[in-house]
Design brief:
By secondary structure, the chain is mostly helical. It has 5 domains: 80 residues, no CATH class; 100 residues, no CATH class; 68 residues; 68 residues; 71 residues, no CATH class. Helix content is 59%, strand content 3%.
Length: 432
């Protein structure tokens, strides 16, 4: 059976004089039935809407602007659109409701033909019943509106499954209605696909608070779906047995490593150690995150870049990586520009730089170049000790740097602040 998705404008949604609203309709050989199911049309309206709409839609599913719509035979009050339903039931603004209705069909059509047919035609889905479940666990309209706007297909969830899962979050895990609403904003798509209450309960005890769980699930939603007994808990035990330092930071900075299969987790532990970072080091969590994100070949290519392009020896690389494993995440071009600036402009030695790899992680445009500009100006005017090192200036916090090297010289060097701002903005320094 062939379906065409046709975009038309139907007036009279919400009030007879209201604005034109966007309505997605589906054309099929059995148009009367389909319009009735999809748009909530009365039988008489469905019978009247199919022929003229089919005539107005091309084979590509586009609406002909020359076609008269709505037909004179169709009274505006006889239509009930998904968008207007979202306004009435969920409290969405009309413009937001139209975008949400369009988003629902777009997501369903991308997912699969079955998903598109289900959201368009299936009687098994009951949006009003899903809303009733949300109200039953204590959510208000103000809580529901952003959830539906973010994930409109949530209203097409299985009522029985969603009811059981939401009640479990409330009764078993002990989440309050506001907490459930916040969790849905992060994980509604996960919730409509499977049970998550056991994971949520464990993660709250593991991280110490519901708020931290929300932050972690935003970074890795697989925390809610990965098997606790077979994956997450064995991984935690493995990291602790291995003496991984800073496991609290590991679970916060790279929560996804807890979701890998045990054999992969063991492989990552070994590869992180091979970078020269001992498990007891506070840097090990970053080394673990690096090898978890990059293949052996990619890590090897990055190490080769240090040797081949930057002219580093193996011993110099072995000094830099354990101090800051994150440099392996940086793009080659970024590393090269930092290195050339520090060597050619600042006058640093290669070994000095590699012993302080944190410099590679600082913004060249927003931090290193502007602060070097300030340093040169102050040195030229005799306002800075010639023995002052650039590294110390580069590592200062922004507020402290401005206080010590810009604000205190506003009288002796009036244009310094403007010059610093200009360099940071990338428009070049002003004369001082």
């Amino acid at each position: 059976m062939r379906y065409l998705l046709c975009t038309v404008h139907v007036s009279g949604l919400g009030s007879s004089n209201g604005p034109w609203a966007l309505l997605k309709l589906v054309i099929s050989p059995r148009s009367k039935t389909r319009y009735r199911r999809h748009c909530g049309l009365a039988p008489s309206a469905a019978a009247g809407i199919a022929p003229p709409l089919q005539a107005c839609c091309s084979s590509q599913g586009t609406f002909s602007p020359s076609c008269e719509w709505p037909p004179r035979s169709l009274a505006p009050s006889s239509t009930t659109a998904p968008a207007s339903s979202l306004v009435a039931s969920c409290g969405l603004a009309p413009s937001q409701a139209r975008k949400t209705a369009e988003k629902a069909l777009k997501e369903a059509s991308k997912a699969s033909k079955k998903a598109f047919q289900e959201i368009s035609f299936s009687r098994a889905f009951n949006p009003d019943a899903v809303l009733a479940v949300l109200y039953s666990v204590g959510l208000a309209r103000a809580d529901i509106a952003p959830v539906v706007a973010a994930d409109p297909l949530f209203l097409r969830s299985s009522v029985k499954k969603i009811e059981r899962r939401l009640h479990a979050l409330r009764d078993r895990v002990g989440l309050s209605p506001p907490q459930i609403a916040r969790l849905l904003l992060v994980s509604s798509r996960v919730l409509r696909r499977g049970d998550i209450e056991a994971n949520v309960e464990f993660l709250i005890s593991f991280y110490g608070s519901f708020d931290k769980v929300l932050v972690m699930t935003k970074r890795s939603r697989s925390l809610l779906t990965t098997n606790l007994e077979k994956v997450i808990q064995p991984n935690i035990a493995l990291f602790r047995r291995s003496g991984v330092g800073g496991i609290d930071q590991l679970r916060s900075n790279a929560p996804y490593v807890l979701t890998f299969k045990l054999e992969r987790a063991k492989e990552f532990l070994l590869r992180a150690e091979q970078l020269g970072v001992p498990p007891t080091s506070q840097m090990f969590k970053y080394a673990l995150a690096v090898v978890a994100c990059h293949s052996r070949d990619k890590v090897a290519a990055k190490l080769d870049f240090f040797k081949r392009t930057l002219g580093c020896s193996q011993s110099e690389v072995s000094i830099a990586v354990p101090k800051m494993p994150q440099i392996l995440n940086l793009a080659d071009d970024n590393l090269l520009r930092h290195f050339e600036f520090l060597v050619n402009e600042v006058g640093m030695e290669r070994q000095y730089i590699l012993e302080r790899p944190v410099l590679f992680g600082l913004s060249l445009e927003k931090r290193l170049v502007p602060r070097h500009y300030v340093m040169k100006v102050l040195l030229a005017k005799g306002l800075l000790n010639s023995n002052a090192g650039f590294y110390g200036l580069a590592m200062m916090g922004e507020e402290n740097f401005r206080l010590k090297f810009i604000d205190c010289h506003k009288d002796s060097v009036p244009g310094l602040a403007d010059g610093y701002a200009a360099v940071r903005a990338g428009v070049g320094p002003s004369k001082v």
